[in-house]
Amino acid sequence: MTTESAPRLGYIGLGNMGAPMARRLVDWPAGLVVCDARASATEKFAAEGVAVAETPAEVATRASVISVTVRDDTQVRDVLTGPQGILSTAPAGTVVAVHSTIADSTAIELAADCARHGVDLVDAPVSGGAPGAKQGRLAVMVGGSEAAFEAVRSPFARWADLVVHAGPVGAGTRMKLARNLVHFVAFAAAAEAARLAEAAGLDIRRLGEVVRHSDAVTGGPGAILWRASTTRLADGDPWLPIMSHVRDLGEKDLALALDLGARLGTELPLARLGFEHLAEGLGLPTTDRSST
């Protein structure tokens, strides 16, 4: 992309996520302007010759594609619609990308506010955390129009190695919430597994080593998310033997874990829920096998 064809970029919010994401845009062909409420956050950028704006409103006068990475819905609203917000100065055609994880209803409401000014908003939350931001290996889930998605695709590729168009405004946030459901329920399951291992006299640090190693090989919970639908698998479906194998192994191992927990006096509520709902989640009928 040449200086002539590239939009000038703006980045608002230079915290643990925003700073490493913006840093990958420092050499953007058409230039970058950054903004943060803390002067200390912009000093390093200024030292590298990056333009610094005092307010979001000033960013909007100097950039046509603007990323926003702030804390929550309230801060996003202020950056966009406050007295010194983006919409107070942004010309028609500006594209604003919100990377903060906010409510999907907030994204839709703010997109309507933007549209009244001729501005396009995309909700574009990211997954991968601070390590992914530093490595340029984030996944970004974009909700917005096709035109807005095309406007952000190239700059996003500087700090993300997976850029997904999830659908219209709000879809990016919904996908992020579904993704994080996997993440944090898995954390709760890991904590439950640690309790079982500890009760069995095992070193839970070594258990963590094994979990991280095997998940890196198998893909972890995401390994089953290949189907286009959650409907019941029909006879002849090519996924039927694969998911049946997963169900049979999963129910066997969960039953054994529940039996071990019962003998050790350790409650395993997530394991029991997993046993009861695994087959249904895989698109299969439940079996008549019962846990011990």
Structure description:
- The chain is an alpha/beta fold and 292 residues long.
- It has 2 domains: 9-174, NAD(P)-binding Rossmann-like Domain (Rossmann fold); 226-292, N-(1-d-carboxylethyl)-l-norvaline Dehydrogenase, domain 2, CATH 1.10.1040.
- Helices cover 49% and strands 13% of the residues.
- The chain has helices spanning 18-23, 39-47, 56-62, 73-81, 104-115, 129-135, 146-156, 171-199, 204-218, 240-264, 269-281; strands at 9-12, 32-35, 51-52, 65-68, 95-98, 120-123, 126-127, 138-143, 160-167.
- Helix 2 links the parallel strand 2 (32-35) and strand 3 (51-52).
- The longest helix is centred in the middle third of the chain and has 29 residues, at 171-199.
- It is elongated and about 65 Å long.
- This is 3-hydroxyisobutyrate dehydrogenase-like beta-hydroxyacid dehydrogenase.
- Keywords: NAD, Oxidoreductase.
